[in-house]
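REQUEST FORM: STRUCTURE PREDICTION
Request ID: SP-0412
Submitted by: Lab K.M.
Chain count: 1
Length (residues): 400
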Amino acid sequence: MNSIIYGVPGPGAVQIRTTHPGLLDKEVHKMRLLRFLLRVIAPLVVVVALAVSAPAFADGGGGGGGGGGGGGAPVLSLSPTSLTFASQATGTTSTAQTITATNTGTANLFFNGVQESGNSLDFTMVVDGCPGLTLAPGQSCTTSVTFSPTTTGTRTATLTFTDNAANSPQTVAVTGTGTGTPAPLAINTQFFTCTGGVCDIGANSNVFVNNFFTTSFLASGGTPPYTWSGQPPAGLTLRPSGLLLGAPTTTGTSTFTVTVTDAAGATATGTFSLTVTGPPPPTPPGCQTGGTLKETLSGPAFNGRTPNGQATSDESHFSGCGGFSILSVQVNNVNLPDGTQLWVTLDFKAVGTITLRGGSGTMAPYNMGRFGVSRDQIRVNSALPDVGTAQQILIGGSFV
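STATUS: Completed
RESULT:
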């Protein structure tokens, strides 16, 4: 299994899993590159087509073209809206349960993704057939989940479906009970690429110098809760929750150790590495770039004020030939104390933090690499994902 982890176990934890190592990042990049090309090149094709067909219009040949899009809206319906697994012995895996997502609206529905939060090591999406699909009215897709408890007691998670319907995001609660004897404390490395006892925490990801990077360390067995410690590469901070974040300041490969301690005092230590490169070069000359896209961020009243913001994707150095895009986010009128760190995500993938001063702040520019935004939403949360009070305060942007 491979995963991009956007949080840590507990409030705000988010990860996406795929059964093929490295597949997720590669497929997401392919999908977004295709959307970028369609967005940038399609208008040029339309212009050429209109130019070619102009004489027909001049001759009075054609009549009324029809509008093709028009009214209607997509609506996502999930069945069931919760999953409950029977008691399961630790170290074993249940049979899968399936959620069917159906577009019950009257316009096409586009799926951005399905994310899992909570006790994420206990529940695995073995079939994730929805992300990237466009469902016509009446069409469906499925997501299947298994339960493999890592410890005893009640285990819970939430699946979050994001799409272009007005009722997005939609959630499904997942519950199961682990039985038997808890396994010994261990660091879980199934979402990293490990060779010779060293696990690469940045494999299949863009890890650029002085650019935001984050992942989370996860443990199983022993006696929760867990506390993490270690000396990560320069520019990165490891929080007691296991959340690692920051911007690496040197290129090359760094190797470091991380230790987890459970509530009973047991410990486990692992060795990890991170390879950091320089940013990619801009697109070669002569290729059609994407320009600059801006989206407004909005949200409900929060602590007595209504926050607002803007997300900007600079794609002037990015094209189908290569290059990179830069994402920036700024917020205003956020009623939280100075120094509060906000968590910023692009379709739930963390892209940076914002430190507030006087209710405002700007995220450090994030180099997305060969990545063009399209139908992607920016979310700003009131705190880092390992803070129990974290909640979404701003959302916006489809970048279409």
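NOTES: Residues 186-276 form a domain with the Immunoglobulin-like fold (CATH 2.60.40.10).
Reviewed by: T.R.
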